[in-house]
Amino acid sequence: MTAGDDARYMALALSLGRRGLGHVWPNPAVGCVLVREGRIVGRGTTQTGGRPHAERVALAQAGPAARGATAYVTLEPCAHHGQTPPCADAMVEAGVVRVVTALEDPDPRVSGGGHSRLRAAGVQVETGLCAATAERDQAGFLLRVTRGRPFVTLKLATSFDGRIATATGESRWITGPAARRQVHALRLCHDAVLIGGGTARADDPMLDVRDFGAVRQPVRVVAARQLALNTDGRLARTAGTQPLWLVHGNRAGDLRGGSAATWEALGARLFPVPVGPGGQLAPAELLGALAEAGLTRVFCEGGGALAASLLQAGLVDRLVGFTAGLALGAEGQPALGALGLDTLAEAPRFRLSEARPVGGDVMHVWDRA
């Protein structure tokens, strides 16, 4: 097998792994390709809900053809007993003779153990192929394991001059239908959609994925310190059938009356977190609670105060902007709340990764510098 062949098969495994983004949390979205004598005999991606793992899907597809094969896996095969035995053991039992991985798994339950099991069984192991691409794909899983928080994408759909609504609050629609469909595609590859309480009250959103067929819907998360939310709105009406998580303050007096019991009766899951000195929910603790509950990738759609608090805390990993060709002027509502900046050096910086037209608008993607 040449280095070019190895890179080509790993690229295929990476593309298979991306299919699981948003659907497999708290597990990583892994891809696996089995190759024997220059022929692909098995392909797998981690299945919805995180089981079975990509390696087992590929091995099942290959059957006896896995004996003597090379496996290309985007993350180190697991070495611990969970709902199923370790994937490293399954590869040994299937007769795989060479395993090429992109990354070592930092999960303490694995952390080199999968590679060690394979080597101990006489399997040739090589790691680090396409590692930079794999790290980008696995950023949510890696952050959850190593830093206790999910990967955060902040989406802003604005006018040319950075406004999200007119002075009277009119905002539908600043961007066109193609941009709105792209937003649904982005929701689809994240575990959860996050908004602030003000946005929930003003827009009465569903925060679901539409027009993509029968898909696993993201968790809907609302950060509302006092749970001052409409119990007759669309989120409330669907809390029992589509996951709704509410993050609120944990101090005495943060909640209004019996709001917690009301929302729990509707089917929502509640997460109390500390409140920061400015009266906002502490952003690091907010994300920490979501990570502890299993989330690896969160898609934040505002509002301005929540977005600003995440940016101030350095907790936004990617910005996705949709800019429309209209201007609303200084009286329009800004996309972000106050950041308290005195100098440009204090402003959070991002690196442009992508820019392209989407319908009549422009989509631009920025990653943390």
From TrEMBL:
Residues 4-125 form the CMP/dCMP-type deaminase domain. One of its GO terms (biological process) is riboflavin biosynthetic process. Transmembrane segments: none annotated. Binds 1 zinc ion. The lineage of its organism: Bacteria, Pseudomonadati, Pseudomonadota, Alphaproteobacteria, Rhodobacterales. It comes from Tranquillimonas rosea. One of its GO terms (molecular function) is zinc ion binding. Zn(2+) binds at H53, C78, C87. Converts 2,5-diamino-6-(ribosylamino)-4(3h)-pyrimidinone 5'-phosphate into 5-amino-6-(ribosylamino)-2,4(1h,3h)-pyrimidinedione 5'-phosphate. It catalyses: 2,5-diamino-6-hydroxy-4-(5-phosphoribosylamino)-pyrimidine + H2O + H(+) = 5-amino-6-(5-phospho-D-ribosylamino)uracil + NH4(+); 5-amino-6-(5-phospho-D-ribitylamino)uracil + NADP(+) = 5-amino-6-(5-phospho-D-ribosylamino)uracil + NADPH + H(+). InterPro entries: APOBEC/CMP_deaminase_Zn-bd, CMP_dCMP_dom, Cytidine_deaminase-like, DHFR-like_dom_sf, Eubact_RibD, RibDG_C, Riboflavin_Biosynth_HTPR. The keyword Zinc applies. This is Riboflavin biosynthesis protein RibD.
